[in-house]
Design a protein that fits this description.
The protein is mostly helical. The protein has helices at about 5-25, 30-40, 45-65, 75-95, 100-120, 135-150, 155-165, 170-195, 200-220, 225-249.
Length: about 250
Amino acid sequence: MSNLPEFLVFALVGAGAQLVDGALGMAYGVTSAGLLLGLGMPPVMASASVHYAETFTCGASGLSHLAAGNVRRGLFLALAIPGAIGALLGVWLAVHLPASWLRIVLTPYLLGMGLFLLLRSARRPGERTEPPRGTSLLGMAVGFVDAIGGGGWSALTATTLLARGMQPRVVIGSVHLAKCVVSLAASAAFLFGIGAGHVIAVLGLIAGGILAAPFGALFIRRVPARAATVLAGLAVLVLGINNVVRILH
């Protein structure tokens, strides 16, 4: 496959993941990582490629939330610092586990994320702005699994904090800015561990995500949030089942 068709494939992956993220406010990483795995990319390379791309795509989002006043310093620090530590531990495990073992580890994660998205239901918005107890442990744990699986940070942290009664705009803004730090930490560790990786994949994910970003708002207006959640959950679930089939064969 020449560089241009390969680039276009990864751009389509990035665009599709960005549309899902635009509709849900989450799931860019787990969707794009799952699609890359479905294309046959090794698990550690898929996670590295997603984190390299997210370092750029999350930056604009996080800074815009900061400028809009949607970030609370206490919540940001409680998520970002432990999340970065968890990401470094996750990258170390991802780099040192054999690809076949890592695929086995990732399969229940993809299946679980698919079910999580399918079962995710709307909750009454809260008004709390201070981080609840256990937020740092949440950040470290999710940073760890995000680095191994290539995604899941926003889906797990935002949903958990919203369920504990935090104000939605504060959660979304702080989680997105913290994700920049977590992605940067994971990217630096992957760069040190495996090098630049699949450059075409990274550039394709970035280009596709940037081009699709303006359509995110239109997509969420046309597709009900519950329907988009179900579609994303089914997509990730199918990718997990595909992994099961590949492992058994």
